[in-house]
């Protein structure tokens, strides 16, 4: 294992310290491992909290800032944060107009965020709504999941509900909007290599030379099949076809996210997006906005995923609203 | 070699097509392989052109847009663009107030950009100034270079002179500013793995398990030494010490860029930046702005580089000015 780290045990603490040094506009609680905005949102607006295991950067800490999250709670690598960490974040940002917590559908996360919501309600009287993202069409259940896994739609969701909370929508509307996004987003990924969890010191799984895993999860959970690598135009089909088969994306505009898994350079992501865009065009899907880059990663895994989200004028307006975070920034 | 590509021969064309699909705000001339703004800058302002071999994305195509470049000329992977490609770009954007071309110090690039400037002057009467970036302190001469190699300072330069051109400074001032940036920027990099050029099909060089190359170039050119990997805190010293030894960075504020080489995930870049920031602080260097991420890459190489640039109020003002490109975006 060759990584830019000090010791496997200190990766989370050290990387949070680096995030804080790189982004003075964030306030990092190094003890609780929660990333906040240095300048909190105006009181009386709905708070937004997300979090999960570390290793998916810029998710979630990189999405804290005006127009997106108020707090991101970091667990150890690929491990849910604990209920008391999450409850601290909920208490810190949810005292005004309540808080929506955004949870990716993994068993540990769902359990700990639910417990945290109860804790925060009991300790600080915070009203908490929860939305669970389960958008990965690859498999119905998985190593860490009952039901589908939560992946790329999370990024789009955090942006869209972030805009709604910023403009002062109340908790019921923000939570309703979040569910609308969840119902309209679908994802599918593939891996060229495994990632290596620092504490394990070796790749989570082994792929042969020339072999890929289709339907991979962001923790290296098994997908649908292993098969030989093929030209990008064929690989694009392995992402586009299952997503389009799962939901009708031809009725109106969509936002497309072509996401890198961490170790795939932009030159390959651009190239893949070109292939994906051609297939979507041929299928009659109208891409209104697109995002190509590393947005929800899996440590040093090489590979990519596709997320499509059906949108209407309202969702597009919220998507286009200003956002100022390390991971997504425009309009301000 | 496992990559998201179709064929090694079509990587450049396919990735440019993907860039165009991902970014409708760019106009990509697929025949000449030049990336332009879809909406050109107002006439009468200095044009900015850069370019070089492909494989360093988002450099340079990802830095085309308001507040930064007007055109980026793409050569094949790690290969200079040809004089006629460059001359076409110079002619297209330089007819108003002349054009500054920004060239990284590699023998092929320097020769071809110089020839292009003569061609453009002869064919379109365009006045061309040239600035050459040679900021890598690792080695004095190298495989592709007489003198120092041009690396991370290029990104900071393109942003700063982009702002100056946007606000209407004339060619002499913009070129003078560019030389000021070049004189005040220094870089140093290290690699954990080689990159793999698609046409070669195998890594450019071999590192043993647990071995790194210190002073690596962005084409995999040899650096200063190979040594065993060490904790990030020690690796940070291998970047910071030679940069600080080469130029005094303690007299005023600096912009710091901690750059990923393409396959290193953000979690490791954050962590490294934390170590670098601590060393800079201890050395009395005052970091006024910082940038952490993949900005000038080397295909799928794992590793990172550090760039420091001495700045004053004027350079900081230009750095903070709005920029709207795929690779850098703020303030608009």
Description of the structure:
The structure is a homodimer of 332-residue chains. Chain A has 332 residues and is α/β, with parallel strands linked by helices. Chain A has two domains: 12-184, 3-Layer(aba) Sandwich (Rossmann fold); 185-320, 2-Layer Sandwich (Hypothetical Protein Tm841, Chain: A,domain 3). The first copy, chain A, contains eight helices and 14 strands. The first copy, chain A, has helices spanning 11-22, 83-93, 107-124, 153-166, 171-184, 232-246, 266-282, 313-320; strands at residues 26-29, 34-37, 47-54, 71-77, 99-104, 128-133, 185-191, 211-214, 225-228, 253-260, 286-293, 303-310, 323-324, 329-330. In chain A, the strands form three sheets. In chain A, strands 1-2-4-3-5-6 form a six-stranded mixed sheet, with helices on both faces. In chain A, strand 1 (26-29) and strand 2 (34-37) form a beta hairpin. In chain A, helix 4 (153-166) crosses helix 8. The radius of gyration of chain A is 19 Å and the shape is globular. Chain A starts with 10 loop residues before the first helix and ends with a strand. The model of chain A has no long low-confidence stretch (mean pLDDT 96). The interface between A and B is large, with 61 and 61 residues.
